[in-house]
Amino acid sequence: MNAATGLPTAPVLVLLGPPGAGKGTQARLLEERRGLVQLSTGDLLRAAVAAGTEAGSQAKKVMAAGGLVGDDIVITILRDRLGDPDCARGVILDGFPRTTVQAQALDELLAASDQKVNAAVSLEVDDAAMVSRISGRYTCSSCGEGYHDQFKPTAAAGFCDKCSGNQMKRRADDNPDTVAQRLTAYHAQTAPLITYYEDKQSLARVDAMGDINDIATALDLVARRALA
Ligand code: AMP
Fold first, then answer.
1. Band of residue 135 on the pLDDT scale cut at 50, 70, 90
2. Which of 45, 76, 131 to mutate to test the pocket of ligand 1 (most atoms within 8 A of CB)?
């Protein structure tokens, strides 16, 4: 309950996992099942780059190299987005936090409105499989639905199952060299957050190596428990 407004506080779920673990795919499925809003800092940063904002131009090179964008930029972008009215339904954070500084900033931001992270879910995967997982992925330019050459192809080649759009795109940073850098950044800066949330007793682990729908079911169970 928010002390100031008396309204129920919105649930906050964090998805952790290396690039290719399926955070985006699973966040979208959970969004549909639970009515929460998916917030991807990667998407917000790509939009800032495309819009040519100051933050976007600072982030562009770092993203192309597979590093992490500065905490100040990412925290500001996320804070602004969290203030949008739709986020009052509750959010699934996909790709944020990625550093301890970001995790602490998130805790402070949420505490200011009597909120907290309800659960942080670590999508557990085998690093060796990540490069091939990432190099096969693409998304629909119209609705953003994610696909994979091998694991989740479109039903009709070239056409989105969801919106029938026929423009598909692949991310510039989904190439083997950049993916290797992104995995390094994950292990050095983001993996310690598993212990951060474990210490707060809000961590859940989900095996994310299997079938997409089985993983979604396991994640939904965690979400249901966390939001109960
Ligand atoms: P993603 O779409 O989550 O794979 O993110 C793509 C890229 O955006 C990452 O490789 C980083 O360069 C940047 N990025 C996304 N989220 C964050 C974050 N929370 N902190 C720092 N950089 C981020």
1. confident
2. 45
Residue 197 to residue 179: CA distance in whole angstroms = 25
Cα Rg for the chain, rounded, in angstroms?
A: 17
Is 146 exposed, middle or buried (CB count within 10 Å of its CB: 0-12, 13-18, 19+)?
Answer: middle
133 is catalytic: no
Instruction: Quick: pLDDT tens for 186-220.
Output: 999 999 999 999 999 999 999 999 899 999 999 99
Instruction: State both tokens at 197.
Output: 């949330």
CA 41 to centroid of ligand 1, rounded, Å:
6
- Which residue's alpha carbon is nearest to atom 6 within ligand 1? 42
pLDDT reading at 101 higher than 90:
yes
Active-site hit among 33, 60, 171, 205: 171
C-alpha to C-alpha distance for 223 and 66, rounded to whole angstroms = 30
* pLDDT for residue 6 is more than 70: no
In the sheet that holds 137-140, the strands lie side by side as: 146-148, 137-140, 168-169
Q: What is the DSSP string of 123-158?
A: EE--HHHHHHHHHTEEEETTT--EEETTTB--SBTT
Does 137 qualify as catalytic in the annotation? yes
Candidates 34, 137, 152, 205; catalytic one? 137
At 7 the pLDDT is 45
Q: What pTM value is reported for the model?
A: 0.89
For the chain, give the percent of residues with pLDDT over 70. Answer: 96
- Contact by Cβ (8 Å): 121, 206: yes
Q: Which residue has the tokens 């990540």?
A: 130
